[in-house]
Amino acid sequence: MSKDVIIACDFNSKADLMTFLDKFENEDRKPFLKVGMELFYAEGPAIVKEIKTRGHKIFLDLKLHDIPNTVKKAMAVLSALDVDICNLHAAGTAAMMEAALEGLTRADGTRPLLIAVTQLTSTSEERMQKDLLIDRPLDEVVMHYAKNAKDAGLDGVVCSPLEAGKVKAVCGDAFLTVTPGVRFADGEVGDQVRVTTPAKARELGSDYIVVGRPITQAADPVQAYHRCIREFLGGEVE
Hints:
Blueprint: E1 4-8, H1 14-22, E2 32-36, H2 37-43, H3 45-53, E3 58-64, H4 68-79, E4 85-89, H5 94-104, E5 113-117, H6 125-132, H7 138-151, E6 156-158, H8 161-171, E7 176-179, H9 198-204, E8 208-211, H10 213-216, H11 221-233
Parallel strand pairs: 1-2, 1-8, 2-3, 3-4, 4-5, 5-6, 6-7, 7-8
Helix pairs in contact: 4-5, 7-8, 8-9, 9-11
C-alpha cells in the first residue's frame, strides 16, 4: 500500500457520515477512511460493509486491549469485515499482539494490516509519567512499544508524526507509521499535543496521516482533502 491521507470519520450516525461522503460523490479518488469507536458503536459492522460497497479503503480504529484470548477471538470477527487496517494497543503486551495476529489471519493466509498504538497523540510526557506512572522518556517508551510490535509480527504502529522517523530508524523503512495529530499550519490544534502539518509529516517519514476535524469540519471538506493530498503527497488529487 502506498502513502495516503486517511480521513477520520468521527461521526455518530450513518446519516452524518453519508452526508459527508456525498460531498465526494463526483471525485475520481475515493478517500481512505478511518472508522473509529464513535461511528462503529453507533452503527455496528453494517456501516463498515456499506462503506466498502462505495469503494473506500477502511482503517478500523477500535484499539483493542484485553487478554490475549479475547483479542484473538475479536480479531477473528473483525477479519470477516474485509477492512484494510486494524489496530490494537501495544500496551497489551507482545503476547496479546501475537494472539491478535493469529486471530486476524484468515484460513487462506490473508489478513488486513495490523498496527499497534504506542502512545496517544493527546498524551504528553508529563501526563504519561504522572497518570500512568511510566517514568521513562516518551520517545523511549514509543520506540520500545514499536520494537515489541515488530517482534510480534505486526505491520506498523500508530504514533505521532514527530516520532515516525525514529520508528523507521529502530524498526526499518518497511515498518508502517500511521500518524494522527496532523493539522494545517493555519488551523487549530484542539485536544492534540504532539502535532505537525501534512508537509512536515511527509518529511518526518509518515506513511499515512490520519486527519479528522481539519477536513470533516472544514467549510469545504473536499477542498481541505485536496489540500492535505497536495501537502502530504506533493501533488494534485488523481
